[in-house]
């Protein structure tokens, strides 16, 4: 009964979300801090007023506040430059459905977010990966001409490495590509730079963001895209009628409105990330400098899979990942100072 590409595909497997056991959870890049108190208050007000009516289909309140927030980075931005979704994965699905025809081609780096391959398979399209260079930039193969190429994804910062390609280099990639470039900035709030400004320069650049990581709202599911209005206008046709509910719209708007709380918790995570990276290196791990809320590492003498299992047995979850032809490693989320200290103590007894 199913389309052949659906029965043939494996499907995306999220990081472990155990139930019924207590773990120190450092495997899915969740924020260790609670969300802003303003978020809970905003959701409470919505609950008090009732949920019997449909939500605003365009999440207008969020779009207005986000446009105000980004006006210094995106010249001329208005709410019409923003599309909201049920997490940034929803946005990635919308753009894939909008631009890619069955039999088309989607290009993205390797290693990177494995959902891109799943989105291509669902669409009946083909995936093409381009390996990062040794300095974690992308060469001419990423922009090579192909008449079937209809969409390119660039996670920036990248997962699982936490590396960043500078905006001027991303601008050159976008100019050379014959298709839209989706700059997936799920972790950009932890980085020293971002590509929002490129949206005003090139209509084929679409930046996607999520509130799951830097705003502590993984459980709320809210993301958005920033693109020129004529692009957003077409993407709106593809989204679900009410893809964001009243609770998520209220919570997300309150979250980005509390920039003081956001900055405080983000800065704390960055400080812990730097301390954790140094400590891991002291234990013999090779760690790539990260601009995200996680660290990618391998140990010089121990297998990553074995360390993952030992940590899990000890009540600490990290993400073991193995990219065929590239290698394996551990992606460790930056938790609280206490969680990271426990992780380091456990690893100290294993290596």
From TrEMBL:
InterPro entries: Aminotrans_II_pyridoxalP_BS, Aminotransferase_I/II_large, HisP_aminotrans, HistidinolP_aminotransfase, PyrdxlP-dep_Trfase, PyrdxlP-dep_Trfase_major, PyrdxlP-dep_Trfase_small. GO terms for biological process: L-histidine biosynthetic process. It is an enzyme of class 2 (transferase). PROSITE patterns: AA_TRANSFER_CLASS_2. Its cofactor is pyridoxal 5'-phosphate. One of its GO terms (molecular function) is histidinol-phosphate transaminase activity. It comes from the Bacteria. Residues 23-347 form the Aminotransferase class I/classII large domain. Keywords: Amino-acid biosynthesis, Aminotransferase, Histidine biosynthesis, Pyridoxal phosphate, Transferase. Pathway: Amino-acid biosynthesis; L-histidine biosynthesis; L-histidine from 5-phospho-alpha-D-ribose 1-diphosphate: step 7/9. The modification N6-(pyridoxal phosphate)lysine is found at residue 213. CDD domains: AAT_like (cd00609). It catalyses: L-histidinol phosphate + 2-oxoglutarate = 3-(imidazol-4-yl)-2-oxopropyl phosphate + L-glutamate. PANTHER family: HISTIDINOL-PHOSPHATE AMINOTRANSFERASE (PTHR43643:SF3), HISTIDINOL-PHOSPHATE AMINOTRANSFERASE 2 (PTHR43643). Homodimer. Belongs to the class-II pyridoxal-phosphate-dependent aminotransferase family. Histidinol-phosphate aminotransferase subfamily. NCBIfam families: hisC. This is Histidinol-phosphate aminotransferase. It comes from Lacipirellula parvula.
């Amino acid at each position: 009964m199913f389309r052949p590409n659906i029965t043939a595909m494996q499907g995306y497997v999220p990081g472990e979300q155990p139930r019924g056991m207590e773990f120190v959870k450092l495997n899915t890049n969740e924020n260790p801090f609670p969300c802003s108190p303003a978020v809970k208050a905003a959701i409470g007000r919505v609950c008090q007023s009732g949920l019997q009516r449909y939500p605003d289909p365009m999440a207008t309140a969020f779009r207005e506040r986000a446009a105000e927030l980004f006006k210094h980075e995106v010249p001329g931005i208005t709410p019409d430059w923003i599309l909201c979704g049920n997490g940034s994965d929803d946005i990635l699905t919308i753009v894939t459905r909008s631009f890619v025809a069955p039999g088309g081609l989607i290009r993205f780096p390797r290693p990177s977010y494995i959902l891109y391959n799943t989105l291509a398979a669902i669409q009946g399209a083909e995936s093409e990966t381009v390996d990062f260079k040794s300095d974690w930039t992308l060469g001419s193969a990423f922009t090579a001409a192909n008449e079937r190429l209809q969409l390119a994804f660039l996670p920036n910062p990248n997962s699982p490495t936490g590396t960043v390609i500078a905006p001027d280099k991303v601008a050159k990639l976008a100019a050379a590509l014959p298709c839209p470039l989706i700059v997936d900035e799920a972790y950009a709030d932890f980085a020293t730079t971002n590509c929002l400004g490129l949206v005003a320069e090139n209509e084929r650049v679409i930046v996607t963001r999520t509130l799951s990581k830097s705003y502590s709202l993984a459980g709320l599911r809210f993301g958005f895209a920033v693109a020129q209005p004529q692009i957003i206008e077409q993407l709106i046709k593809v989204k679900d009628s009410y893809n964001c509910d009243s609770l998520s719209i209220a919570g997300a708007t309150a979250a980005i409105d509390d920039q003081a709380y956001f900055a405080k918790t983000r800065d704390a995570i960055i400080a812990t990330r730097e301390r954790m990276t140094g400590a891991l290196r002291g234990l013999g791990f090779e760690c790539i400098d990260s601009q995200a809320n996680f660290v990618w590492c391998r140990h010089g003498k121990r297998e990553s899979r074995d360390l993952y299992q030992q940590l899990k047995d000890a009540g600490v979850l990290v993400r073991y990942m193995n990219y065929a032809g590239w290698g394996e490693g551990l992606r460790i989320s930056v938790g609280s100072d206490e969680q990271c200290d426990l992780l380091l103590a456990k690893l100290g007894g294993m290596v």
